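Lab channel / #folding
Pinned by the channel admin:
"Please post every new chain as: sequence first, then the structure tokens as a reply. Keep commentary short and put observations after the output so the thread stays searchable."

First post following the new format, from NK:
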Amino acid sequence: MTGVLALVGGGEWSPGCTFDQLLIDASGATEVAVLPTGSAYENPGRLIEQARTWFAGLGVEVLEVPVLTRRDAAVAEYADALRSARMIYLAGTSAMHVRSVLKDTPVFEALLEAWAGGAALAGTNAGADVLCDPMVDSRGGAFTVGLGVVSQMSVIPRVEQWSRDKVHRTVELAPSGLSLIGIPSATALLRDVDGAWRAEGASVAEVSVFIDGRPATPAELDA
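Reply from TO:
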């Protein structure tokens, strides 16, 4: 049975991210493996330090897994670290870079193995976007191929930073049958081990769900 999955809208590791404690409790993690892949060119070390400060306050340590290039994604040491992890966070700002680095690699396979074995898996900002297939191309709001951990679902991270017109365009471009979820910062869409979806965090009321282009609720994602 897979572990809990969290699609975080950004604003990670900050006040309001109450779901992180839920992920720790659900997985029994004493350490969080963090991949700053999506911020490879934007001071990934700063992202790691932010994670360390936040999770220290929750009583757990952070293990940096510095997968920044495709060559890194073939390193056995990094794959082994993820395979044995109980909680994994995929973070950063560029979903396209994450996809190009991780797709069809030993590190990504190890991440999937850990999640299949009950580890909690969280993607924040670009990490949330790329775990879906199709994923939203934030540059223009259209769709492209993601990593496919979740299929027939796409998310718009940091949706509060999008204009109403841009969201509307993305809803109209959505393929038939797709569930599209706008997730604000410091907020997450969680899938529990039983497959049920729910929103948690700072701005639950601002989560927007569209199924086949019509407004819906997170509860309808279970259908």
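NK: The first helix runs from residue 19 to 27.
TO: also worth noting, The mean pLDDT is 96.
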